[in-house]
Design goal:
Layout (H helix, E strand, L loop, with lengths): L16 E3 L2 E3 L6 E3 L10 E2 L5 E2 L4 E4 L3 E2 L6 E2 L4 E2 L3 E2 L6 E5 L3 E5 L4 E4 L2
Antiparallel strand pairs: 1-2, 2-3, 4-5, 6-9, 6-13, 7-8, 10-11, 11-12
Bound molecules: zinc ion.
The site of zinc ion has 8 residues, from loops.
């Protein structure tokens, strides 16, 4: 364990502190996982192992129930302009016909346009 915590990836503040497995930035409120190699940005991969980036287009590879509603994101739904985030659902995006929601990277596949 090192006493030197990495700076906030959002605002570069060096006033980050640790709480359980999370690092927290008091300046912008960003929280992220402290596990893993702090020097290497975490790679988010899709169902077949492609590395995903902000702004990518993906398709959903299985029907996904939308939490708190009766809507289902159908397999094959194309989602443009994804944003990678930390957490269980590591993709933040706007799904056509559904709206803003989180997806798990293992349930999508990158589309090259
Ligand atoms: Zn910050």
């Amino acid at each position: 364990m090192s006493d030197t915590l990495p700076p906030c990836p959002e605002c570069n503040s060096s006033f980050t502190y640790e709480m359980d497995a999370l690092l927290i930035c008091p300046e912008c409120g960003h929280e992220w996982s402290a596990s893993g190699d702090a020097d290497a940005p975490a790679e988010v991969r899709d169902a077949v192992g492609n590395v995903l980036n902000d702004g990518d287009t993906v398709t959903v590879i299985k029907d996904l129930k939308v939490k708190g509603s009766s809507s289902v994101v159908k397999v094959g739904t194309k989602v443009r302009g994804i944003r990678l985030v930390d957490g269980d659902h590591d993709i933040d995006c706007k799904v056509p016909g559904i709206g803003q929601m989180g997806l798990k990277s293992q349930f999508v596949k990158k589309v090259s346009e």
